[in-house]
Design a protein that fits this description.
The chain is α/β, with parallel strands linked by helices. It has 10 helices and 9 strands. The protein is globular and about 55 Å long.
Length: 282
């Protein structure tokens, strides 16, 4: 599985990982087996959140990584309503208990909070000092939100390690300004819902036909091509899969490198990046 340095941290992380949104809806044994299958295939970047299943997904992830914690780049997210100093410290402890671990590799603010960012950052830094998380970052932040947060951090010695955002072939908003901004500042970009969260292009659509054309030429699936397209510019991708066979399909994209011609073709056929409208979320 291909790996890249995770932004300014320098830690090498698989480009292709696993998301866990809605996993509590599946058969527990099957879901746990799927996550473990992903780990076996090198998809050790594992993302979850306290919001997912009201904590139940963290318990599922904890079961899946039991005995394998050292192999996993483990990420969780705190809700904005828990983003006060004390709220973050307590939320992190709850997540750690559910996950059955003593530390996270990355802890994210799920989306912008009404709590002053300076207070949130102070709590994150405390968790770093306590060894409860190695790094911290944000999710669903557009360029203006990131810039405000970075202004708050000036002179503190702290830095945002990651911005996790919606990104898939039919929603390329971040390519216009957000992705270049993050890369300029050493912030890793992680694409959630990289297959469209239930809205993957139909086989009859212009986008679906383009993905299928490349897939046929590469003896791959359209979904594998879509993941490769998302990862082409250095964005990490965390598709969700609740069954082992879907995990295996996703993992097949890990070594799929699109040619310059294939990228150009897909960029022409897929919806174009937009400079207006703000960052979409899902």
């Amino acid at each position: 599985m291909r790996q890249l340095p995770f932004g300014w941290t320098g830690v090498r992380v698989p480009l292709l990982g696993q998301g866990t949104w809605d996993l509590e809806r599946g058969d527990r044994a099957t879901v746990v087996a799927a996550v473990r299958q992903g780990l076996d295939l090198g998809m050790t970047h594992l993302d979850t959140a306290e919001m997912y299943g009201d904590g139940e997904v963290e318990r599922i992830v904890g079961e899946a990584i039991n005995g394998r914690r050292k192999d996993v780049f483990l990420v969780s997210k705190v809700l904005p309503e828990n983003a006060s100093y004390q709220g973050i410290l307590e939320a992190c402890e709850r997540s750690l208990r559910r996950l059955g671990t003593d530390h996270l590799d990355l802890y994210l603010l799920h989306w912008e909070s009404q709590v002053p960012f300076a207070e949130t950052a102070r709590a994150f830094q405390k968790l770093v000092e306590q060894g409860k998380t190695r790094f911290w970052g944000v999710s669903n932040f557009d360029v203006p939100e990131l810039q405000r947060a970075m202004d708050v951090l000036k002179g503190t010695g702290q830095a945002i390690a990651c911005n996790q955002v919606l990104y898939h072939p039919a929603q390329r908003y971040l390519e216009a300004t957000l992705l270049p901004f993050c890369q300029q500042h050493g912030i890793a970009v992680v694409a959630y819902s990289p297959l469209g969260a239930g809205s993957f292009p139909s086989a009859a659509s212009k986008e679906g036909k383009a993905l299928a054309k490349v897939a046929r030429a590469r003896q791959a699936t359209a979904r594998q091509v879509a993941l490769a397209f998302v990862m082409r510019a250095g964005a990490f991708a965390i598709p969700k899969a609740a069954r082992p066979e879907h995990v295996i399909e996703n993992a097949g994209a890990g070594e799929l490198l699109l040619s310059a011609e294939e990228v150009s073709f897909l960029e022409d056929q897929l919806p174009k990046p937009s400079l207006g409208g703000g960052l979409p979320t899902a």
